[in-house]
Write a structure and sequence with these properties.
With about 400 residues, this protein is an alpha+beta fold. The chain folds into two domains: about 260 residues, L-amino peptidase D-ALA esterase/amidase; about 120 residues, Ubiquitin-like (UB roll). It is built from eleven helices and 15 strands. Strands 1, 2, 3, 4, 5, 6, 7, 8 and 9 form a nine-stranded mixed sheet that branches. A six-stranded mixed sheet has the order 13-12-11-14-10-15. About 0% of the residues have low confidence.
Length: about 400
């Protein structure tokens, strides 16, 4: 089926009426970009999803309050400091970030959403932050989307951005997005930030439903290391400058945008050398399929053997067995890129050399059929390398 959208340039500033910028505020060493801002020229309808971690960073708490108003004019972001586990002063600093932007662009403080990413437990350098906000406001541009994508990076090795043009009949709208995330990735949600803009006019309730649906089948279907962070946030702003738009093609395009960014996060996972898709079918129900897929995708032993190019399906069987999903080992089928390694819980006669060649590739698929029902789930994951350990020995 022909898709109703095409990829375009511009990231979050591709939709009309949005400006963005990134600056080096001195939070990171070496003059690296460490702050970004997105501003809508007219108040936008706002929707968001946040981390499910019980320990939530100050900017998450503040933005969760502000988003209840349903409208936003700006998003301000810093990287290099998470402003998490910083007590009352952390909340004061997060509110100060929103107030500094609101005061200068002439909107309510609650119309500014705040996000941070970086090291946990370190007090925000608020003087530098406020200086960065002044620079950002002076640098806002209708071409600033790609710069904003770079300004929110932490351990990312490349900026994650996308934009699409969507057509339905004679109506045309645009959706743009940027994201960051490379480590501590196990959504519901993960160490990730994602900001989405659109010039479509979408009612708030419909926008929230659409965003949640897109997040559930993208950012909530990836894992790098099984950790869920304190700062994870996805925000969508719809300023309506392109007019009303049918929800079905909008949802399809939003799903695509989020899925592409989610895959970029796994590809850029810390130390990753393999991109692996785990498909579980035949589960008793979708919940069991999700549980089984995550058990395999997060297994340290499984990820290590993938790193070594070893198609060790025994470790996959082990992960399925200790998951909380219903599993009958005499019914399990496992295949690598369609080559059956296990049928009914027993090894096939597939040549080991052939399976090793598949797992040695930078990308492959593991198909698991539990043969117990119609439940299914797909998770995108990766291997676990020595480089990941090296990167995470310290910050």
């Amino acid at each position: 089926m022909k898709t109703p959208f095409t990829k375009i340039e511009g990231a979050v500033t591709a939709p009309r009426g949005f400006r963005a910028a990134a600056v080096a505020a001195g939070i990171k060493r070496g003059g690296k970009l460490d702050m970004a801002m997105i501003v809508s020229d007219t108040p936008a309808t706002a929707a968001a999803t946040f981390t499910t971690n019980q320990v939530k960073a100050a900017p998450v708490k503040v933005s969760m309050q502000h988003i209840t108003k349903g409208r936003a004019c700006a998003i301000v972001v810093n990287s290099g400091n998470a402003n998490a586990c910083t007590g009352t002063i952390g909340l004061i600093h997060a509110e100060a970030m929103a107030a500094a932007v609101a005061r200068r662009i002439g909107c309510r403080e609650t119309n500014v959403l705040v996000c941070s990413t970086g090291r946990i437990g370190v007090t925000m350098p608020i003087v530098k932050i406020e200086g960065g906000i002044k620079k950002l406001l002076g640098s806002l541009s209708a071409n600033g989307g790609p710069a904003a994508a770079r300004g929110i990076m932490t351990t990312d090795t490349f900026p994650k951005q996308i934009a699409v043009r969507v057509k339905a009949g004679t109506k045309v709208i645009r959706i743009g997005a940027i994201a960051k995330g490379a480590g501590m990735i196990e959504p519901h949600m993960a160490t990730m930030l994602c900001f989405i803009t659109t010039d479509a006019a979408i009612p708030r309730a419909a926008l929230q439903r659409a965003l949640r649906a897109a997040v559930n089948q993208s950012f909530n279907r990836i894992t790098v290391d099984g950790d869920t962070s304190t700062n994870d946030t996805v925000i969508c702003l719809a300023n309506g400058l392109a007019g009303e738009f049918p929800i079905a093609p909008f949802q399809q395009a939003l799903n695509y945008v989020c899925a592409e960014l989610a895959k970029m996060m796994v590809l850029d996972g810390e130390g990753v050398s393999k991109f692996v898709t785990v498909n579980v079918t035949g589960a008793a129900n979708d919940r069991d399929a999700d549980i089984a897929a995550r058990a395999v995708a997060n297994s340290t032993l499984v990820k290590c053997c993938w790193c070594g190019g070893d198609p060790n399906w025994g470790r996959i069987m082990d992960a399925l067995g200790y998951s909380r999903a219903k599993v009958d080992d005499d019914s399990v089928d496992i295949a690598f890129n369609g080559v059956a390694a296990v049928r009914n819980g027993i090894a096939t006669h597939a040549p080991l050399a052939r399976l090793k060649k598949i797992v040695a590739a930078p990308s492959f698929t593991v198909d698991i059929d539990l043969n117990l029902g119609r439940g299914r789930c797909t998770i995108h994951t990766c291997d676990l390398t020595e480089k990941y350990v090296t990167l995470n020995k310290g910050e």
